[in-house]
Structures are given as structure tokens and as C-alpha cells.
Amino acid sequence: MKTVPGSYTVRGESSGGGFDVAASWSNWFQLAEKCAAHAGAGEVCVRRHERSHRGVPQERGQIAVHPAKGKWIEPRTVRVGAVNDGTTTSKSLDLCDPSCTRRSANWSATVHRNLVGPGSGFESFASASFALPSGTVKTLKASYS
Asked: Measured between alpha carbons, how far is 25 from 19 in angstroms, rounded to an integer?
């Protein structure tokens, strides 16, 4: 079954009578992106997206790696969250559980959670960490406020 973003109502029957089940969602909307090219390794991008799913706002962080030909990049974590009045809330995904994988082809991973409403002085972000063939571990962050 293929669906598109929008509102849906499914009607059914059971021994107790009829029932309706409704759901709605929107496309993920990209709000921030940061990409960095690393000589001898390739490019890494971090993106932050938001959508509404069944009336609940959600946020998603994504890491996308684009290794150079014959090279690799080792994604380690991807995180999404917000800083609100100096307090950070976030959700992370450990990409090294049970072990880290060196990616030599284009690859991406995401983490998402229900969106925490902003207050005064907020910053919403997605971040990721990754290792390069040089052994250096880097962190990349895409944010907006």
C-alpha cells in the first residue's frame, strides 16, 4: 500500500458495529542543513526536519555520508533536539551499536522524536559525529533559532 501525506479515515465493521480510525501526517520539511567536505574522505551532511504526525509535531535529525571514491567515513551518532532557556533536550542514536561501520558508499541514518515546544531563547538542532580515515573524530551541527 502506498500513501501520500494527508488525512485518512478508514471505516470498518466488527461484531459490535462500525468504527472509524483516522490519521494524518505531513511531509518532513527541512529547516536546517550543514555539509562539510573533508579532503581524502568525502562529504558529510547533517539535516534537521520537522513534520506533523497524527496532529503531533515531530523533529528528525539525519546524517548523510558521501565518501570519496575508494575512501570511507565512519558514522558514529546522530542527534536531534533543542536548547530552551539554557536546557538541552535531545534524542540520540548510537550508530556504533553493536559496532561502528565504515561506509564506502552513500549512506544515511535518522533519529526522530516528538517535538518539544520552544520557549524564549531556543535553538533547534541536529548533530552527528563521525570518524575520518585520518583517525580524526568530527562533529557537525545544523541549527536554527
From this structure: 21
